[in-house]
Amino acid sequence: MALLITRHCINCDMCEPECPNQAISMGDAIYQIDAERCTECVGHYDTPTCQQVCPIDNTVVTDPDRIESRDRLWEKFVVLHHAS
Question: What is the DSSP letter of 26?
Answer without folding.
Answer: E
